[in-house]
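Appendix B. Raw example, untouched.
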Amino acid sequence: MQFEFPEDQEFFSHLLANGDTNQLVVAYSDLFDFRHPAIKRWEFDKTSKNVLRDLVEKYNGECQLRLHPECSPSHGLEPDHIIPLSSNILNKELRKLTGTAGAKVLSQSFGSNHPRNLTLACRKCNGLKKHKILSGVAIHRLID
């Protein structure tokens, strides 16, 4: 795994592997893909209907995120990337970057389209999560 910044690898190492970088690589590398997000989105879009069908079957049509107070499959179900395909959270929080003249803080590419990095979410929960990175406890609940 090749993180752009060492502090990002340290962040995910602490989040997922109790600070053990080797364990992060061995146990969680399938969650990460550092290619351009547009490439990953294009690949995902080609399979998203099949992915959704498989996730609905796997989770009996129940949202796995359970983040929104109005969480319900009646709002519609979507596949969600547990580690987001891209996020600007670490640029904001670790590097304290800010946007200039109304521009957003640059995003980085993180998450993969690997089945282990996908879960089923209702539209309300998926919309609330967006590009956020969940807590380690929440991630482990979803991937373990």
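End of appendix B.
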